[in-house]
C-alpha cells in the first residue's frame, strides 16, 4: 500500500473542510461586522421606525333615555390631541409643548387642565364636597408622586429608627400623613421641577444639567423663573407628570386636549411632521343634551381617583384615562352603561404614530337605560321650582301671616318628587339648585370659577351678604358675625353648620331629611283612626290652643293664633288645625303609648324601627339618606344616651344646681393629660349615668325608671373614686352631693324628657325628632292614595341592548301591604281633598283647576333654637295626589326657608297641567293653562371651552 499517497489524501480532505469552515466563519464575521458596526445606526433607526404596539379603544357609554325615548345622556365622537412618549419624541418634548401651546392659542383652544396643582396662587384643587374627602385625595396625590418618601427620608427615618414607611406604627403613620398634608403647593411645585428634571428645558447642555441635578427644587425654581414663566414650567411639569402616571399603567400616551374642534384637529394634522410624539385621535365623550335637566337623577362622570384605583383596575378599567359614574344612574348602572373596550395591534413609527393596523377587536357600546322619568314633567318641576324659589328670594320675600312677619330671602334650595301611585315608578325627581354634568364629562371644563362655586364656596362673602339682606341680629340685638354663621376650621376654611348655603350637588329629594310639618298630619290621622282614638265624625273643639294639666304648661297654638271651633277630621285637615292634631297625639299616647304614631309611620315607609339595621325604605336605585326618623322611644333613648355625657359634663362645670343654688364645679370631661386612674374614674361615672337611661319601651310606657335614691347610691362611690384621684386639697364638694345633683338631673330632667307625651304630640304635628326625606314622604302619600300598598320606588323601567332588545325590565314590587283599613284610608283621603277645596289651605292654588285633587300643606320649623338669628325660616312643604277619585300621581314638594307650604303648592298645579294636558284638552277645552314651561332646545355637542351654557353650531365627528 502507498502510505504516502494515503496520507496526502487524508490531509487534502481535512484541509478542504478547514478551508470551508474558515470561509463560512469569515462570511459570518463579516456580516456581523457589517450589521453591528457599519450598518448599526441604520438598523437601530429601523428598529425605532417599525415596532408593534397594542392600542385600546374606548367603548361609547350606553344612552340614558326618558320613559318616552328622549335622550338624556348619550356619547358622541370627538377629537383629542395626544402626546405619545417615545425616545425620539422625548428629545424634543419641550419644543413640542411650546409649539402645541402656540397652535392651541391661535386656534382658540385650551389644553385640558386636569392637573390638580394650580398657580396664582399656588394651591391644590381636588373635587370633593367634604373636608375628609379633600384630605384623602390630596394625600393620595402627594404619595403617588413620592412626597411621603421624601419627608420620611428627610425627617422621620432617623427619628423613628424605621427603614421603610411600611414599618411605621399607626401614630407614626398619622404623623407622616400630617407632614405630607403640611407640604404646601409651592413646595410641591419646586419638588416636581427637580423630580422631573424640568431644568433640561433650559437647554444649557449636559454639563450644566449635571450641576442643576445637585440643586434643590427651590434653587432650581429661582434659576428657571428668570428665564421661563410659571405657566410654562407648569405646562412642562404637567406633561412629564402625566407621562409618569400613565407609565404605571403600561401606557406612554398623554391626552393634551380633549373634545377639540374639527378645524383645530385638521390644523394639527397638517403640522404633525413638526410635532414629534403628537397625534390626533378620536374617542367617545359623554353628552347631556339638556344640560342641568335631571342632573341628580342622571349623575355625572369622574376620573378614577387613587382611592378607587385597585377596585377598578381589577375590573379591567384603565385607571389613568377611564371615566366612571360618580353619582346617580351613571353610578348605579355603571356595569350596564360602560360597554366593552376594543382595540388594535399596530405598527408605529419612531414618533409613535400608527403606520399599519395588524389586528382589530371591535368595541361593544354600553346598554341603554330607560328611565321612568317623564322629561316634560321633569322640565315643569325644575322650572317651577326655580321660578317659585326666585320669587321668594326677590319679589315676594316678606310675608305677614296672623301678625307674624317672615322673610324668605334664603329660599334658595328645594326639591320635587312625583310618583305613579299604583306602581312606584318615579316620574319626576327635581332639585334646585342643580349643575350641568357636561362640565365633568371632559377634563378641563371645570374652570377655577366653577370649582370655587361647587367645591370651595366663599362662605364669608355669602355670610356677610346674608347678614345684610336679613338684617340678622343676635339675642342681644347686636349684628351677628359671619364667624357665628360660618365658623372657621383649624385650617382656615369655613363650615356651614346651619345649612345656609345652597349645594348644587346635594340631592335634596333623596338625601335631605327635614321635619315634614303639617304634611305629616295625614299619617297622624291614619294612626288615630286605626288605633281607635277617633272616628271620622269625632268632634274636637279648637279654642286656639291645646294644653293639659299633666303637661306642665306645655301649649300648642294654631298658626297665627286662629281658633276654629268644633272640628271633625275633614275640617281639621282643611284648616290644618294644630290644636286638633295635638289632641290626637295626646289621645294616641294615652291609648297606645310612646310608639303609637311611629309604628304606623314605619308601615308607610317613614323611618324604620331602630331595632333593625338602618336600611332604605324606598328601594330607590340612587344614593339616599337612610337615617330618617319618626319619633319613637328607642331612638329617643339612644340619642339621649349618646349625648348625656356632654350634658353631665356641662352641668358639673357650670356649678349650678337644679334649684338655682351654686356648688363647686367639678370637671369630668376628657383630658389627654389624665392618668389612667383618673380617666377610668371619670368614665365610670359616665357609664353609670348612661346605664340609668337604658329604659325599655314597656317600662317607659308605664313610667318605670331609675329611682333618685338608688341612682344616688350608685353614683356616690364613683364620684368618691374620682375625687380620690384629684390632688390633695382640691376644693370640691362631697361625693354624695355631686351624686345627688346628677341623680336629680337624670331622673327629673332627662328621664322625664324621654318619656314625656310631648314627644308624641310634637310627632303628631310633624315636628320634634321627626326628620324624613321628600322621597319617603311622596311614597307614603302614594301609599295612602293607592289603597295601602307600599311599592318600591324606581327610576329605571328597563335596560336595552344595542339593537333595542329588552334585557332587563323592572316590574312593580310591593314592599309592604300596610293593612290599613279601607275605611281609614277613605276618611284620610276625604280630609286631604278638603285641603284643596273651598276653605282649605291650598284652595287658592287649585280653585280653577277642573280635575279634583287632594293635598296637604306644611310649614315645618327648623330644628334650631337660633333659627331666628341665623337666617333660617320654616320649610314650605306640600304633598298632593290626583285625581282625587282615582289617583294616578302623587307629588311632594319642599323649598327650604320658604316660610309656608302654600307658597310651594303652585309647582304642583303646573305639574298637573302638564301631566293631565290631554285630559284637559279633550274634556275641559275651555281651561287655560296657568303655567307653560317649554323645554330648552338641546345641543348636539359641546366642544372647546365650556361655560355651562348651551353652545350652538358645533361640529361632532360622525360615529
From TrEMBL:
Penicillin-binding protein transpeptidase domain span: 414-629, 761-910
Xref: SUPFAM superfamilies: beta-lactamase/transpeptidase-like (SSF56601), Penicillin binding protein dimerisation domain (SSF56519)
UniProt keyword terms in alphabetical order: Cell membrane, Cell shape, Cell wall biogenesis/degradation, Membrane, Peptidoglycan synthesis, Transmembrane, Transmembrane helix
Record's subcellular location: Cell membrane; Membrane
Transmembrane annotation, as ranges: 14-32
Its membrane topology: Single-pass membrane protein
Entry's Gene Ontology cellular component terms: plasma membrane
Positions of the Penicillin-binding protein dimerisation domain: 57-357
BP terms from Gene Ontology: cell wall organization; peptidoglycan biosynthetic process; regulation of cell shape
Molecular-function GO terms, alphabetical: penicillin binding; peptidoglycan L,D-transpeptidase activity
Family named by the database record: Belongs to the transpeptidase family.
PANTHER family: PEPTIDOGLYCAN D,D-TRANSPEPTIDASE, PEPTIDOGLYCAN D,D-TRANSPEPTIDASE MRDA
Name of the featured protein: Penicillin-binding protein
Organism whose genome encodes this protein: Youngiibacter fragilis 232.1
Amino acid at each position: 500500500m502507498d502510505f504516502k499517497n494515503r496520507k496526502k489524501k487524508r490531509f487534502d480532505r481535512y484541509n478542504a473542510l478547514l478551508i470551508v469552515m474558515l470561509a463560512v466563519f469569515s462570511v459570518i464575521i463579516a456580516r456581523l461586522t457589517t450589521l453591528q458596526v457599519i450598518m448599526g445606526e441604520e438598523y437601530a433607526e429601523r428598529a425605532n421606525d417599525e415596532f408593534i404596539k397594542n392600542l385600546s379603544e374606548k367603548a361609547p357609554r350606553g344612552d340614558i333615555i326618558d320613559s318616552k325615548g328622549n335622550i338624556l345622556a348619550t356619547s358622541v365622537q370627538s377629537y383629542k390631541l395626544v402626546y405619545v412618549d417615545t425616545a425620539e419624541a422625548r428629545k424634543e418634548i419641550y419644543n413640542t409643548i411650546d409649539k402645541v401651546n402656540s397652535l392651541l392659542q391661535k386656534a382658540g383652544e385650551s389644553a385640558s387642565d386636569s392637573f390638580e396643582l394650580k398657580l396664582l396662587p399656588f394651591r391644590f384643587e381636588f373635587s370633593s364636597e367634604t373636608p375628609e374627602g379633600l384630605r384623602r385625595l390630596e394625600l393620595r396625590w402627594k404619595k403617588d408622586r413620592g412626597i411621603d418618601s421624601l419627608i420620611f427620608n428627610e425627617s422621620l427615618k432617623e427619628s423613628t429608627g424605621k427603614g421603610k414607611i411600611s414599618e411605621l406604627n399607626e401614630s407614626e403613620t398619622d404623623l407622616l400623613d400630617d407632614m405630607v398634608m403640611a407640604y404646601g403647593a409651592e413646595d410641591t411645585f419646586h419638588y416636581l421641577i427637580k423630580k422631573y428634571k424640568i431644568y433640561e428645558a433650559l437647554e444649557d447642555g449636559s454639563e450644566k444639567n449635571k450641576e442643576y441635578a445637585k440643586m434643590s427644587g427651590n434653587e432650581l425654581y429661582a434659576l428657571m423663573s428668570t428665564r421661563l414663566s410659571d405657566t410654562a414650567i407648569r405646562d412642562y411639569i404637567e406633561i412629564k407628570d402625566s407621562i409618569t402616571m400613565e407609565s404605571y399603567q403600561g401606557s406612554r400616551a398623554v391626552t393634551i386636549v380633549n373634545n377639540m374642534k374639527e378645524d383645530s384637529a385638521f390644523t394639527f394634522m397638517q403640522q404633525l411632521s413638526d410635532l414629534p410624539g403628537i397625534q390626533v385621535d378620536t374617542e367617545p365623550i359623554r353628552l347631556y343634551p339638556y344640560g342641568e335637566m335631571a342632573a341628580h337623577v342622571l349623575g355625572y362622570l369622574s376620573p378614577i381617583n387613587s382611592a378607587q384605583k385597585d377596585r377598578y383596575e381589577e375590573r379591567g378599567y384603565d385607571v389613568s384615562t377611564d371615566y366612571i359614574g360618580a353619582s346617580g344612574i351613571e353610578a348605579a348602572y355603571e356595569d350596564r352603561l360602560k360597554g366593552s373596550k376594543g382595540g388594535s395591534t399596530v405598527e408605529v413609527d419612531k414618533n409613535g404614530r400608527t403606520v399599519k393596523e395588524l389586528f382589530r377587536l371591535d368595541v361593544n357600546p354600553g346598554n341603554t337605560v330607560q328611565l321612568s322619568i317623564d322629561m316634560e314633567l321633569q322640565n315643569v318641576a325644575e322650572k317651577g321650582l326655580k321660578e317659585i324659589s326666585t320669587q321668594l328670594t326677590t319679589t315676594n320675600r316678606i310675608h305677614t301671616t296672623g301678625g307674624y312677619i317672615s322673610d324668605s330671602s334664603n329660599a334658595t334650595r328645594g326639591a320635587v318628587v312625583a310618583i305613579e301611585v299604583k306602581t312606584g315608578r318615579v316620574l319626576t325627581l327635581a332639585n334646585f339648585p342643580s349643575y350641568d354634568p357636561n362640565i365633568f364629562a371632559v377634563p378641563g371644563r371645570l374652570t377655577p370659577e366653577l370649582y370655587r362655586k361647587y367645591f370651595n364656596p366663599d362662605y364669608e362673602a355669602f355670610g356677610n351678604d346674608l347678614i345684610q339682606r336679613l338684617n340678622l341680629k343676635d339675642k342681644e340685638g347686636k349684628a351677628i358675625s359671619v364667624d357665628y354663621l360660618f365658623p372657621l376650621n383649624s385650617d382656615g376654611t369655613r363650615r356651614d353648620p346651619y345649612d345656609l348655603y345652597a349645594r348644587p350637588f346635594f340631592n335634596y329629594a333623596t338625601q335631605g331629611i327635614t321635619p315634614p310639618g303639617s304634611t305629616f298630619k295625614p299619617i297622624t290621622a291614619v294612626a288615630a283612626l286605626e288605633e281607635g282614638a277617633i272616628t271620622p265624625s269625632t268632634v274636637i273643639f279648637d279654642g286656639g290652643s291645646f294644653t293639659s294639666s299633666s303637661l306642665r304648661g306645655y301649649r300648642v297654638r294654631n298658626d297665627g293664633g286662629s281658633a276654629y271651633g268644633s272640628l271633625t277630621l275633614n275640617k281639621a285637615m282643611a284648616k290644618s288645625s294644630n290644636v286638633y292634631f295635638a289632641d290626637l297625639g295626646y289621645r294616641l299616647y294615652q291609648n297606645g303609648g310612646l310608639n303609637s304614631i311611629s309604628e304606623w309611620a314605619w308601615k308607610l315607609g317613614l323611618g324604620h324601627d331602630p331595632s333593625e339595621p338602618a336600611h332604605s325604605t324606598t328601594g330607590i336605585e340612587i344614593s339616599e339618606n337612610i337615617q330618617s326618623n319618626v319619633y319613637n322611644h328607642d331612638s329617643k333613648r339612644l340619642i339621649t344616651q349618646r349625648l348625656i355625657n356632654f350634658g353631665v359634663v356641662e352641668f358639673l362645670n357650670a356649678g349650678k344646681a337644679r334649684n338655682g343654688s351654686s356648688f363647686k364645679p367639678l370637671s369630668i370631661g376628657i383630658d389627654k393629660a389624665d392618668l389612667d386612674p383618673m380617666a377610668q374614674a371619670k368614665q365610670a361615672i359616665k357609664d353609670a349615668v348612661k346605664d340609668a337611661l337604658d329604659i325599655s319601651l314597656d317600662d317607659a310606657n308605664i313610667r318605670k325608671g331609675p329611682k333618685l335614691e338608688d341612682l344616688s347610691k350608685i353614683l356616690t362611690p364613683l364620684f368618691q373614686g374620682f375625687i380620690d384621684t384629684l390632688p390633695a386639697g382640691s376644693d370640691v364638694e362631697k361625693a354624695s352631693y355631686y351624686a345627688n345633683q346628677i341623680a336629680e338631673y337624670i331622673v327629673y330632667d332627662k328621664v322625664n324628657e324621654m318619656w314625656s307625651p310631648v314627644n308624641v304630640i310634637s310627632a303628631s304635628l310633624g315636628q320634634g325628632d321627626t326628620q324624613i326625606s321628600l322621597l319617603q314622604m311622596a311614597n307614603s302619600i302614594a301609599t295612602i292614595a293607592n289603597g295601602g300598598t307600599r311599592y318600591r320606588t324606581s327610576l329605571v323601567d328597563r335596560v336595552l341592548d344595542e339593537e333595542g332588545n329588552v334585557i332587563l325590565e323592572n316590574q312593580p314590587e310591593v314592599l309592604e301591604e300596610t293593612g290599613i283599613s279601607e275605611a281609614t284610608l277613605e276618611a284620610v283621603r276625604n280630609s286631604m281633598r278638603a285641603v284643596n277645596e273651598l276653605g282649605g289651605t291650598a284652595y287658592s292654588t287649585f280653585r280653577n283647576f277642573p280635575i279634583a285633587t287632594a293635598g296637604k300643606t306644611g310649614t315645618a320649623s327648623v330644628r334650631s333654637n337660633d333659627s331666628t338669628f341665623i337666617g333660617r325660616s320654616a320649610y314650605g312643604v306640600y304633598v298632593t295626589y290626583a285625581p282625587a277619585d282615582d289617583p294616578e300621581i302623587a307629588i311632594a314638594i319642599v323649598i327650604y326657608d320658604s316660610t309656608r307650604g302654600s307658597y310651594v303648592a303652585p309647582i304642583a298645579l303646573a305639574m298637573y297641567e302638564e301631566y293631565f294636558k290631554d285630559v284637559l284638552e279633550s274634556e275641559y277645552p275651555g281651561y287655560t293653562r296657568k303655567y307653560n314651561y317649554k323645554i330648552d332646545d338641546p345641543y348636539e355637542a359641546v366642544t372647546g371651552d365650556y361655560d355651562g351654557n348651551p353652545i350652538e353650531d358645533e361640529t361632532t365627528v360622525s360615529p
